[in-house]
Amino acid sequence: MSLLAAAGSAAAIATIFGNPLVAGVLMLEVVGFAGSQVLLVLLACLVSSGIGALIFTGLGDWTGLFVPSLQIPGLRAATVGWADLLWVVPLAVLAAIGAQLCRRLGLRTAQAAAAHTLAVTTAVGLIVGACAAGFSLITGRSVLDVLQSGEAALPALVSSPHSWSVVALLLLLVFKGAAYGFSLGSLRGGPTFPAVFLGAALGVLVGPLPGLGVTAGIAIGMTAATTAVLRLPVTSIVLVVLLLGPEGTSQLPIIMLAAAVATVTAVALDGAGRAIRPARQ
């Protein structure tokens, strides 16, 4: 049953992400802790991901079902420069810290929801609505910027970065980050695409920094935020490269560095959190 569940999960992930490679890499990292059973589980996941991919790639005369592409449209062409490399560490650390705050908020909310499910879920729904309303009232933008999944809102954010003011981006990070954290622990919502979106928003915000550029900022932000939340650096790298489309290859050096820095930062923050908690008791 566990093998069938893993294979079915891999096929579903391949369909959601529109690429069996992401599912294969994700399952490889997840089942890497399965010891001697890793090969058996991985082979089943690879086969199911490949077969599941036929749903959107087609087979023979059958064109397959339409699955929206995750590739971000309208991304500026860019190459990696020395300044991009210098910005990787501080930006990846910043994105990882922000993602870690959302993750810890979700864990705290989940603990409260386990004891008082109805009350916490109701409160979280009201808080998320208040975050969306507050963002819209202050910035004049749509509440959907906060409420939409990152997958749906990402193209509009990246394709027109100049339509966002610095204040609007900062408030987006605060309000959507809070809504994301609370939703992780109660209500509903997955961890991946909101993290990707928040990382991209950070990238758009810091893009005008000297020598950086919006494309590099987006690549660093998305990778670091996703890695810090999922704790799956290789999966995060593959996902971001696929999202960036043709620019994914050119940004690969800073993407890989951002994943490494975010992983170290997240682990360090976990250790700091465990060290602080006993002192407060």
Structure description:
By secondary structure, the protein is mainly α. It has 2 domains: 2-57, no CATH class; 82-280, no CATH class. Helix content is 77%, strand content 0%. The chain has 13 helices and no strands. Helix 10 crosses helix 13 (252-280) and helix 11 (233-244) packs across helix 13 (252-280). The longest helix has 34 residues, at 82-115. The model has no long low-confidence stretch (mean pLDDT 81).
Q: What does the largest sheet look like?
A: none
Helix fraction bin: over 70%
DSSP summary, beta strand count: 0
> Shape, please?
globular
What value does the Rg take, in angstroms?
19 Å
**End-to-end separation:** 42 Å
**How much of the polypeptide forms β-strand, as a percent range?**
under 5%
Unreliable spans are none
The DSSP helix count reads 13
Query: What's the SSE pattern?
Result: HHHHHHHHHHHHH
The computed structural class is mainly alpha
Mean pLDDT: 81
| Count of discrete domains | 2
Keywords:
mainly alpha; 0% strand
Q: Summed up, what is this model?
A:
The protein has helices at 2-17, 20-30, 38-57, 82-115, 117-139, 144-147, 150-159, 166-185, 192-206, 214-230, 233-244, 247-250, 252-280. With 281 residues, the protein is mainly alpha-helical.
